[in-house]
Amino acid sequence: MTATADAPAAELGRARLRKEDAKLITGQTNWTDNIRLPGMLHVAFVRSPFAHARITGVDVSGALGQPGVIAAFSGADFAAEQGSLPCAWPVTEDILIPPHPPMAVDEVRYVGEAVAVVVARDRFTAADAVGLIDVDYEPLPPVLDMRTALEPGSPRVHEAGNKSYEWVFANGDVDGAFNDAPVVIERTYRQQRLIPTAMEPRAVVAQWIGDAVTLWTSTQIPHVLRFALSAFFAIPEQNIRVIAPDVGGGFGSKLQVTAEEVLAVLISRRIGKPVKWNETRSEGNLTVHHGRDQWQRIKIAADTDGRIRGLEVDLLADMGAYLMLVTPGVPLLGAFMFPAIYKMDAYSFKCTGVFTTKMPTDAYRGAGRPEATFAIERIIDELATELGMEPLELRERNWIRHEEFPYTTICGLTYDSGNYEAATAKARELFDYDGLRAEQRERNERGDKVRLGIGISTFTEMCGLAPSRVLGSLSYGAGGWESASIRMLPTGKVEVVTGSSAHGQGHETAWSQIVADELGVPFEDIRVLHGDTQVSPKGMDTYGSRSLAVGGLALAGACDKVVAKARIIAAGMLEVSADDLEFSSGRFAVKGDPDASRSIQEIALATFAAHALPDGVEPSLDSDYTYDPDNFSFPHGTHLCATEVDTETGFVTIRSYVAVDDVGVVVNPLIVEGQVHGGVAQGIAQALYEEGVYDDDGNLVTTTMADYLIPSASDLPSYVTERTETRAANRLGVKGVGEAGTIASTPAVVNSIVDALKTFGVRDVEMPCTPERVWRAIQAAEGKAQIPQDGGTA
Length: 794
Description:
Strand content: 15-25%
Number of strands: 28
Strand order of the largest sheet: 3-5-1-12-9-10-11
Number of helices: 19
Helix content: 25-40%
């Protein structure tokens, strides 16, 4: 046994290589797709080829006659037990939440909706047999444009109508702010539909043994999923075990209770065998919930010196055909972020949720906050142009200054800390802002065919979801707490059990670093367990950049309890009062006599033996803690992007990109760098490449990676990244980081493109800023051509 160990060096801030990576990059791990169970069968789904149609008949006999096919079912076969997929965020009292059966029974409302299922001995037989099921449809008119869906006479997605809800917020004298304002500008921006594309497609395995079910699934939310299966599908919660093995990315796309998960559980129960479903990439593009998809009308009022007086926001948000887990709430997360880092007198926000016959939307990396940051940072640039001001100067005139923190915004949020001046100054220096502005002027003056543009994004976000009372006030169906447990083993090693379910973020490494510092045990002696509701029974899981800012604080609280228990036992071992002990670097020492001490490992062994514990003391150091945050977390930063735009072809090249972020205290710089790099890549992808497009019949035409463009490493620049640090007002001083890059980068890129083309009269380029769209914007601004409507509906 190892009873003692030297106290380790401080771990927070140390660039540790990730513990997870050895098994991940060598393939010595377990994905859902790897799972093989005795007698396991495979399922494949028949999916609707129509955006909107009545189902008039389903004949599964053709599939049942095939060798290797065990069963085939239509939606009607499960109508009595499949219920409706849950929506956990009814944002208004009068919200329309239509029933959402996992498998359609009477009507389909988007291409790809499941209408029947085949169960076979292998996945290839199942996939082949799908084509032998005969489904009769009566086509109905699709609803594809949210701008016209609410007009009288529009076809209806649901009998009750195409409007899901209208949510409004206002603070201050909005009319007064605009009525006598010397400068008022209004713009409309498009947030195109995006398709999340995790490295690992979804996969599900379900197995019933007696009256208990185990579900292995590629999910971000094993605990939420377990609750949903119980609450909405009448399975006793204690009989459900959900396991998320190693998960290859999610970005919000696996923050969901999916039809395939529910149906796998029901089919396995029906046939008495374990069943498995694997998603193809094209199937995923059709049926993974989509992201963004908004029309944003934004109006800003200012004085002639640039001081912002008021802001009005009016959103149309495409819900798709149904409301999924948090669909209606996603745009409302942005409601609190449109004012961003700026002070103003008045603000109003309205969001209308609209049904269309498309795949439902839901949370995608940033979830409402990238949309808001894009709009405010774009219109701030437009206001600077209107006023003839330097865009950085305009921002500085209006942002919250560092000495004003904590600061309560016009939305009612209290930003606990920040220093926008410091982040911007560092970014400006690294970027050579003045030098690039000088080069831009020179190139414009000589009429260079390749123009240089400089884009700015000074952003903040609210993350670390969230105080449970706040979520309750917004009608969210769950809390924002997180849970953690510390198990002190007799040998002095530590097991950490966390409710935060990782899908690539590096929890096993960062959590080990936090616990190493809190308990004074070596980093190598700590093992982190997660993603299994039987091992980790309590948790609210991972999304919204909450893992560290909430889950990390739960860890710290559990460590405090371990230390408190150990203090009493150490006092007995040293024959002193507990008040006479100091704890540092993993040792309890008597005040004034540091040689009289015991390590926490020695105390763990003595606790296990329990030979001489003080009277009434439990022989265990193990401790649990559930943390409910007092506030959100507010990371911020300044991102600067320089692009070169070929005015003859419209081709955009990112010449340089600088990101300076303030994420509070950094646990592991390598993990932070990885999160920033990945986030910036996704934001650039929205600006330049990605768009989910439907044709006029409601068919998704971007179903493969040949059609839905995702940048490769060769398409992206090398980033310059740096950090400033203002501590958050929490025990560890930490803020979220997972979504910051995505939130900041998209407006930086688009602002740089528009900045490059201002001398041509271009004021906007709709995303993605493809060469054709950029070229057409130049032609239209010069009066040479009009930009035609796209052939498809995004």
